[in-house]
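#struct-pred

JT: dropping the chains for the assembly here, can someone run the whole complex?
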Amino acid sequence: MKLAIRHLSLRLHQFTLGVDVDIQHARTAIFGPSGAGKTSLLETIAGLRKPDSAKISFNGQLFDDSGRNYSLPVRLRRLGYVPQYDSLFPHLSVQRNLLYGSNRKPKDHTLEFHHIIDFLEIGHLLDRHVHSLSRGENQRVVIARALLSAPQLLLLDEPLTSLDAKLKNAILEQLQALHSEFGIPVLFVTHDPAEAIAICEEVLLLQAGRITARSNPAELLG
Amino acid sequence: METVVTLPLVLPPVATGLVLLKMFGRRGPIGHFLSQHFDVDVVFTWRAVVLAAAVMSFPLLARSARVGFQGVDQRLEQIARTLGASDMRVFFTITLPLASRGIAAGIVLAFARAVGEFGATIVVAGNIPGKTTTLSLEIFSAVQLGHDASAYRLLVVCVVIAFSAVWLSEVLMKKRSMG
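RK: done, full complex below.
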């Protein structure tokens, strides 16, 4: 994969996010302290934030080009976005949440659907209402929903935050196997070195809106 | 636009009725147009009753629905877009269902206001027995004529309608929250 971010500039409260980077590893972490601009960077790639200036492309497909005042609509980017906040649709069942991005009816389950459901071990949750899910179940359903929309890149924004250690380890194992199982590249935002080391091939260190270092996780964070 | 919609809420109902009378009367701009091109008379017909009730109750529906729409978490709409949904699909599958409580509450309030409408209706529709008499106008007539028993019977009808409306809205909202 090749995610090319050129001359990205986005004014935030305390600093300006300024990023110029090519991301080529299929499992890359954006690592940095809270408030470093990690989520803003991810939201800009997803098209949820309009940068002051940027040229962003993924595998040759242009996402943003402020010079030409061009921005590809969010729905056409085909990016699976898993945010930090609770993002399940509260008025839909787990099953309807899962199928929202795949445009299928609940009875039209595909092999891919069963594969993802089995992989994330959420088969028993399908008929549940989202309000009844635990935090860990909730996160697994959000990840499954993103996978079912057939994304070309998965953007994970601190998906393990606020989980207890046991749950964190369980989901961490699933995230480790995610790329090999489904072949979808992952861009993973975290402030936990252990998570970055466990999941990613490369780490970009983001501090106050700038990428100050990049290397393999063990070398940079170990 | 918002000011125009809200105006009937703050104007005396009789004044709103007078504005409607001037607009929809045969010599009024809208009334003249309707009469000439569609052969439709509005004032002192059942249409005037509907018009008065709609104009007087619409601000309550609009304000309540607006609060409902403002309460929808825009981040969920964004997430729906990342899942490939068009703006129209986002509106009908995320925004509208999540705002439905506000809309339902607005419909109930507007309905209750419409049932109780008096001032604008009597100006623009009159009180023609069997033609433009509403519940409120009939209660007024009964009290004026000293027909207390008839007035109390109609009062009970009002209470039953109001109770049923509130009950129905609560049932609908409960169904919605259960998905």
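JT: nice. The mean pLDDT of chain B is 90. The domain at 13-177 of chain B is CATH 1.10.3720.10 (MetI-like fold).
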